[in-house]
## 1
Amino acid sequence: MIKGKWHLPKSSAASDAELSLSATEYVLHTLERGNQVGSVDDIQISDRLGNIPRKIVFPDGSMFETTENDAIDAWQKKHRQQNNWLHKFESSMRLALVGVVVTAITVVLFYQYGLPAASKGLAYLVPDSVRQSLTDQTMESLDDSWFEASELPEARQAEIKAEFADVLHQLDLNPDDFPVAFRQMSIKRLDVSIPWEEECQTPDATSEPDSSPEGICDEPERTKLDIPNAFALPAGQVVFTDALVELSQSQDELNAIFLHEIAHVEKRHALQQMVRSSIITISLALMLGDVSGFEEIAIGIPVLLLGSKYSREFEAEADEYSFDQMIALDIDPINFANIMQRMEMTRASLDDQHKLGESLEDDTSNSDSEENQIDAIAEYLSTHPATQKRVEAAKQASAKMQNR
Ligand SMILES: [Zn+2]
């Protein structure tokens, strides 16, 4: 029997009362109402807070208050394990929810601020030997799968390289740190059947691997793609496609692109991006116990370079560097805007042709007049705000240079 005070709902008036609790029933004895009996499932017992009187609320809203905390605890311990468990579960659910929210906020903050800072720091810690081997491996894999030898005349290649070396000298950079290469892009033709694969996957045990006759184990036929593009590999190797050289209308335009690529190397953008996605992949792998993501890190660099998948922030940084250096070298940044627009237009029309399934040579006639071209550029840019922004920035840098 637990002694206490009984309060009617919303009343501060109290009278003496006694409560007894069994496994299933409670009996509340008050002078006013005698014995009231009910199920213990229908009463709410407040949590214990030190020696503060416990409150037990009944279905009618009346309330029993007692200082016999120990007696209540003893009954709860004996009969309400399940409810205690539920109670604990509920409060741990609340705790878990708080945990999830805190974790989410931490992840977002880390992703937004911590990760870029950490990646930047780590990117500069990558030793030269690792940069070099990343570069060599990447170049090798690009040569295997995406590149073909350049068809630019040797003399033309040498001329461009000499101009780039001159630019680097003027900027106190060593041309040996930024070797330049020319390539054509190509893809495997998927429309032709390849007898090659079946024949070569079951090599004849008696023959030497290299003795297979020419033509049987050849690479599948490839289609050249005239995609104007330039890349910089982590150790400083800069690659220009033939199509980009052909698209340029002056050495200054090539210099503009070259300086942009130099910036990617100097600011270690490829490494930063690689470290970023590695941290994400490794974190996810550790959290989810799935290690298949590790392979993606290895194949990530060629994809990154080919897709020009640098973040906007990196592109903007490289552009700014390029404009500053151009102004220092007395090259008008408008050259960057010009070749950038031409590059994007060409890529867009390649995309369209690709979508329409037309041949690459076919569709150059309908944008003949200059007016049409300008319209097309304007239309393209309006749907590519990122490119438009970069072109605008180049024009602003050019205006700044003119007004010096
Ligand atoms: Zn870039």
## 2
Amino acid sequence: MAWSRRIAWAVSSSPLLFLANANYVWPNSRIDELEKLGALGIGRSFGAEWITNAYHDMSTPDIFAGTGGLDASIVFEMDRLENVGDAFRETLNILKGSHNNRVSMSDLFTLATVVAVGGCSKGKVIVPLKGGRVDAAGPGLSGVPELQQHLQTHTANFAKQPFDTSEMIALVACGHTVGGVHGVDLPEIVPNPAPTDGSKNDITLTFDTTTDDFDNIVAKEFIANVSRNPLAFGQIETTRSDFRIFNADGGDMISQIATFNDFFLDTCSTMFERMVSTVPRNAQLRDIKPLLRIGVDTRIASHPQKIPTECGISSFTVEIADSQTGKTSVHDTGRAGFSPPKEILAMYFLSRQSVITVGGVSQMQLNLTVAKVDGTNYTLYTGIWQRTSAASTHSFDIVAVGPDRTVSSLFDSWDDVPRE
Ligand code: HEM
């Protein structure tokens, strides 16, 4: 209990952390795309890779400058020796298709971690998902902890992240409950790292016997001295970083974790929330609300009205009427009403999609027209885009760059545009 209070203090006192629960008002271009992805799920699970990727990215904040933390700077740091392994490039390759100017790569890294932890724990550890992270434009500080370093180096390093000794032990146990050490990455500590059947070298020594499950078995096996964890009892003493870390407080924390699985799960939830909330000062984290789901028995009351273009809409409310109970409820997020994107309007009636033939190959051609609104004036912009197939889920961003700022708007899908 005393330990949990210490964590709460550390969260509120960290200069880097922005757990600000700023009120979310839809639409919010930094959050909405992430919310949609979170609702859909990602599909394939590379849980261990996603967790280690987020930790490596986050683990080198510059607390005084208010930079670094979870900011996707690892994208520029993959060649560093401290980032050995395929986990980082594979994570990037999986997620980059969902990256656009509405959702940052660091928010995607976070989403992947939340999905991985939730999936491997079978829903027992739900890390609150917030969005609004801002990606770094280049590499950040180096200094991700490495397995051959002394305990004092690790303790000092985690203190900068910032995690104290108990928290360091907990966070490492939370990370090392899934996955393991790959022979292809660290052949010096994986005996017989190369497969003998000529297949791709991916011999892995797992941290515990339940490598796909998010549970306290990594700690139980460590305490019982039956651990297979190569970072605890590997053949080379110098690279037994887990052994040194788990014993850093005389074994108190790792024993508690080993004894109480619920304590482990609660602690990991707190630790991971801290980890993904360590963000640069210029990022404002906001809650991700579940998408508004409308049950089969409800209908949205609509009051169709023609709005003259010179007036426009500054905000609107949504009224949901339950056809069975007759009850109605009005939704106006933030009590100010939903406000539609004002600056760029899609002109669907001036847009067309058609099929053309280029070099004997049929291609979809999209002619998009948008209006850039400036007070009561507007300017029409038209763009053409071609592709060989029409993917109905593809989003298009329309960006208008002006002397003072840039505004953008999104077509949510190819199907938004009328066919000829
Ligand atoms: C002193 C601290 C740490 C050291 C020295 C360390 C070291 C390592 C090493 C050497 C590997 C094997 C990499 C490979 O084979 O490619 C590994 C894997 C992993 N680490 Fe850590 N780690 C530390 C802390 C953490 C923390 C705090 C987390 C998460 C919160 C974490 C999550 C993971 C995960 C999930 C894997 C498995 C990756 C996979 O199977 O692909 N580690 N770690």
